[in-house]
Amino acid sequence: MILDNPSDLYKFILNEIFTARKIDPSSSKAQADYLISLQPIASNLWRSYQKHSINVDYENQQNQECYLLRYFVPYTYYLSSVILDSNIVENIKSGEKITLTCFGAGAGPELVSILRLIENSEVKPKSLEIGLVDYSDWSFSQKIIIKYLKELTLKFKFDFEVLIYVHDFSEPLKDDSEIINSISRSQLIVFQNSINEYTYRGSELINFQTILEKMPNTSKIIFIDQSENYRNREELLRQLELVSQYSEYKFKKLAENNYFALNLTSLKQSLPDLIDGNLYAKYKEEPFWSEGLVLRFSFKLSYIFFGK
Ligand SMILES: C[S@@+](CC[C@H](N)C(=O)[O-])C[C@H]1O[C@@H](n2cnc3c(N)ncnc32)[C@H](O)[C@@H]1O
User: Is ligand 1 within 6 A of the CB of residue 134?
Assistant: First the structure.
């Protein structure tokens, strides 16, 4: 299957980064030097994720480059694996068109994930619409990923549309906004690796109520995170449950798994040699280990599906 070859995706991302940086495509020394120069940025990004309160400047292009070359590819397996594990798959298989709204979507690994799921399932919707909502500008990365997917999906003859929305989740979602319109068409509303970064400054709980109110009756909200007990995530889900008891729009917990093991060790073979040893390493070795630059290929995930 086309999307089952992650080594192509890694190579495509690398090439696009080098092209944007005007690095000689015939010089592997220049390419390796650039990746080595990214190491301190990648270390800092990793350090940011070791804290409860995560604060990253995602609009910095080098942060996006490090994100794409480390986290993006494994994260394209989260949503599809969780949908399959939860037996909620029927929801997204039925119908002519699939619509998703993804909050805190960044570069959009959710999009690759859902396309892979469609490619590998027997039921073929005619098209996909995906709304990527974020308060940071991820256009550098989003353009790379969409370019890659457009070329591939020509081969498996599938039509998809990506709509980019800018919204800070601590601000109220406006009733007449395009995001609310997207929610009212969506079968799935996804929060992947993002609520642990939300700092509670106001309207988050109201926004969840609005989403529940506006989404179709059969739709589902899903939270996917690594099972690391991020305080923000735990607190938000606790408050959400409390608020739901008193609200007109109660939600039901449809599926939950706090220790879903996702083993992606076969990804190790897909990692281009240029990345391994210049920016990140596959195995624990100095100096990569001490700088937080060793790649992980197995994950423990927590997910929860809510519906009305
Ligand atoms: C770790 S990234 C996850 C991106 C993507 N979902 C993934 O799995 O790779 C977290 C994202 O949440 C976004 N984010 C954090 N706080 C936010 C807020 N208050 N409103 C909107 N987006 C926010 C960040 O800009 C970032 O893109």
Answer: yes
